[in-house]
Amino acid sequence: MSLVAAVIFLAAEFALAETPPRFPAGAVWHQEISAAPVHPDSATMIATLSGLGGFGNGRMQIDFSLNVVRAPSGSPTRTTVSHPWGYYDPDCEPLGAAVPVPPDAAIEGETGMVCDNLNNDCHLLVVQGDTLYEAYLVTEASATEIETHCLAVWHLGAAYPPEGRGDHCTSADAAGFPMAALVFNADEIQASLDSDPTGGGDLGHAIRFILPNNRMASDSSLGGVGGRLYVRPATHAGGPSGPAGSVPYGARLRLRSDFPVAEYPPAARVILNSFIRYGIVLADGGTVALTAESDLYTTTKWADLGIGSRVFDQTPGATDVNINDFAVVDTGPRIAETYDCVRTVIVPGLFADGFETGNVSGWSSTVP
Questions:
Q1: Under 8 Å between Cβ of 300 and 17
Q2: Is 195 helix (H, G, I), strand (E, B) or coil?
Q3: What is the full DSSP assignment across 83-114?
Q4: Mean of the per-residue pLDDT values for the chain?
Q5: What pLDDT does 346 receive?
Q6: Does residue 135 contact residue 122 with C-beta atoms inside 8 Å?
Q7: pLDDT tens readout for residues 169-206
Q8: Is the Cβ–Cβ distance between 57 and 350 less than 8 Å?
Q9: Strand order in the sheet with 207-211
Q10: What residues form DSSP beta bridges with 98?
Q11: Are 61 and 289 in contact (CB under 8 A)?
C-alpha cells in the first residue's frame, strides 16, 4: 500500500470511529470527583449494600446490549404513540413527537426496530447532531410510528441545571439521566489507548450503573411515595425498596484510588481509571451492574480490546472489583420522591439555539 493510500485508509478508519454523545465539559457528568468529599455515611451505605449482596449477581458484570444509533441529517422520522401501559406525562416529550430513525436503526438487544416491549426494556437511543433522543419500551408500531412508554430529548450543547430535565421527572432511565452519554464503547477506549497505550488514560465522564431495586435505599420517614427517594444528580427514583441505610438512586460512587488497576490489561485500566476519576452513577434498577454500547456501529470491537462481560471478576491474577472498593461521594441531601414532575423549560427566544451553553441563567423551572 502506498503512503497516500495508507493515509486515506487511516483517515477513513478514523472517520468511522463512534464515541458516545457527550455534553459540554462543564456538565456534571464530566466533573472529576477523585478528590470530592465522601458522604459522612459512606461507610454505612457501602456496608449495608454489601450485606444485601452488593452489585447484582454479586459481581460487576457488563451488559453489551445497548445500541446508540447515529442518524445522519435528513434521516426519515417516526412519530411516537403510547405503549399499552400508558405514557409518562409531563415527564416525557408530547406524544406525536418525531424521532429520526435511519434504515439501520436498532433497538436495544435487536438488529432492527421490532422488540418485545412487554417483557424487555427495549431502549432506542438516537443521536443526530447535538440532539439526543432516548425512548423506553419501544417497538415499531408502523412504518411511520414507534410505540413507547417515554421519549426524552436531550440537548447536547446545553449545561443543564441541577434538576436536569425537571425534578421528579423520569427519562428513558429511572433516575432521570441521559443514557447514551453515560455508557462506554469500544471506540472511546481505543481512542484513549491511542493516546496512552499503557491504559493510563480515562474516558472523561461518569458511567451509569444499576442495582436491584431491593438493594437501593428507601425511607418512609422522608414522606415520599412508598418511601422512595433520590439524590443529585438524579431527578427521579424508580421503585427502590431497600433499607434506609443503603445507597440511594442517583448516588455517585468512586473506586478507591489505591485499587490495583495495573493487574488488569490496558483497555480495562481505562475503565477503572474512569471509576476513580469520574465515578459511577446509580441510574436504574436491574441485575447487571454496568452498561456498555454494543459494537454494532463501532469501528473497534470488544473482542479487539479483550473486554468481556466478566472482565472485572474473571481476569486471571487480578483483584475482583467489589462494592467494598467504592465510596459514596457527597452530592447533597436525599430528596423524597413525589412523582410530581416539574419540567425544566428552556425559555424560547433568549438564545440563538434555545439555550445558553455553560450557563443555566436562561432556564426556568415551570410545568409546560
A1: yes
A2: helix
A3: BTTB--TTTSPPTT-EEE--TT---TTSSSS-
A4: 91
A5: 62
A6: no
A7: 999 999 999 999 999 999 999 999 999 999 999 999 99
A8: no
A9: 62-66, 290-293, 207-211, 280-285, 252-255, 326-328
A10: 79
A11: yes
Q: Say how many Å lie between the first and final Cα of the chain, rounded.
A: 59
3-state secondary structure 21-59: CCCCCCCHHHCCCCCCCECCCHHHHHHHHHHCCCCHHHC
Chain position carrying cell 422522608: 222
Contacts of 147 (CB under 8 A, 6+ apart): 80, 81, 82, 83, 84, 117, 137, 138, 139, 140, 141
Q: What is the DSSP string of 229-254?
A: EE-TT--------B-TTSBPBT-EEE
Of 143-157, 180-194, 259-273, 344-358, the poorest mean pLDDT is in 344-358
Is the bond preceding 94 in cis, omega lying within 30 degrees of 0?
Answer: no
CA 96, CA 104: separation in Å to the nearest integer?
22
Model pLDDT for residues 254-294, shown as the tens digit of each residue:
999 999 999 999 999 999 999 999 999 999 999 999 999 99
CA distance 178 to 281: 11
DSSP state of 216: B
Residues 357 and 157 sit within 8 Å (Cβ to Cβ): yes
- The answer to whether 320 and 59 are in contact (CB under 8 A) is yes
Task: Write the DSSP string, 287-353.
Answer: SS-EEEE-SSS-SS-HHHHT--TTHHHH-TTSPPP-GGGEEEB-----EE-----EEEEE-TTSSTT
Report how far residue 308's alpha carbon sits from residue 286's, in angstroms, rounded to the nearest whole number. 19
Nine cell digits for residue 343: 419540567
Where does the pLDDT of residue 141 fall: very low under 50, low under 70, confident under 90, or very high at 90 and above? very high
Query: Kindly report the CA angle at 91 between 86 and 93, in degrees rounded to 5?
Result: 80
Give the single-character DSSP code of 78: E
Count of alpha carbons within 13 Å of 279, Cβ hemisphere only?
A: 26
Q: Which residue has the cell 447533597?
A: 332
Please give the Cα distance from 214 to 61 (Å, whole number). 18
**CA dist., res. 64 & res. 90, Å (int):** 31
